[in-house]
């Protein structure tokens, strides 16, 4: 049986693929009273035939990794929005985000332990995006927590955007090409 191809909305996830890096500004907040700077690294790759984006995040401060997270992002046809399931090294329960991706801006919101969280990724060009994390308690003012500008460190197709089958074939071809007497 042939499966349906990903929708146009799923196709927008391609824009996020690749390896990204940026300096983050951590603003003073209840979870980080001192604030500061950090190095953020992101690896995004498509999976499941382009229906899902796997988001891997690493955060380094003072030369050591102090926070990691994994997100699974997709388009929900049933709900008419993007959804992300977020898991991280804080030890808290997984967080479920939902939101939009319009005009190069993805905005995802969640409710976690009585705090609303808003994540915004604004693509300024193909190789650069701005990231903002904000929180709100009591449903009012959005308090900025972190801001960063990320830059693509590898082209999409080599970093993460190649379907797994093609990537495996590329590895096999690379290995065969190095063997003595390999077919040219």
Describe what is shown at a glance.
With 184 residues, the chain is mostly beta strands.
Describe this structure in words.
The protein has 184 residues and is mainly β. The chain contains three helices and ten strands, in the order αββββββββββαα. The protein is globular. The model is unreliable at 159-184 (pLDDT under 50).
Count of DSSP helices? 3
Question: How many domains is the backbone divided into?
Answer: 1
* CATH topology group: Lipocalin
β content, as a range?
over 45%
Fourth-level CATH superfamily: Calycin beta-barrel core domain
User: Helix and strand succession?
Assistant: HEEEEEEEEEEHH
| Major sheet: arrangement of strands | 1-2-3-4-5-6-7-8-9-10
Helix/strand class: mainly beta
Question: What's the arrangement of secondary structure elements?
Answer:
Layout (H helix, E strand, L loop, with lengths): L7 H4 L6 E9 L9 E12 L4 E10 L2 E13 L4 E8 L6 E8 L2 E8 L2 E11 L2 E10 L5 E10 L3 H4 L4 H15 L6
Antiparallel strand pairs: 1-2, 1-10, 2-3, 3-4, 4-5, 5-6, 6-7, 7-8, 8-9, 9-10
């Amino acid at each position: 049986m042939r499966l349906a191809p990903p929708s146009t909305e799923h196709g927008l996830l391609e824009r996020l693929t690749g390896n990204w890096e940026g300096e983050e500004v951590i603003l003073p907040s209840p979870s980080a009273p001192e604030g500061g700077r950090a190095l953020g690294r992101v690896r995004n790759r498509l999976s499941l035939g382009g229906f899902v984006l796997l988001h891997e995040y690493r955060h380094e401060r003072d030369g050591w990794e102090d926070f990691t997270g994994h997100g699974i992002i997709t388009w929900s046809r049933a709900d008419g929005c993007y959804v992300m399931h977020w898991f991280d090294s804080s030890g808290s329960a997984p967080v479920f985000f939902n939101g939009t991706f319009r005009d190069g801006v993805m905005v995802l919101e969640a409710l976690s332990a009585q705090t609303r969280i808003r994540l915004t990724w604004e693509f300024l060009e193909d190789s650069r995006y701005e990231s903002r994390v904000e929180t709100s308690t009591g449903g009012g003012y959005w308090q900025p927590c972190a801001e960063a500008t990320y830059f693509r460190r590898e082209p999409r197709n080599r970093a993460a955007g190649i379907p797994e089958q093609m990537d495996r074939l590329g590895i096999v071809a690379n290995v065969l090409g190095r063997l003595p007497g390999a077919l040219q």
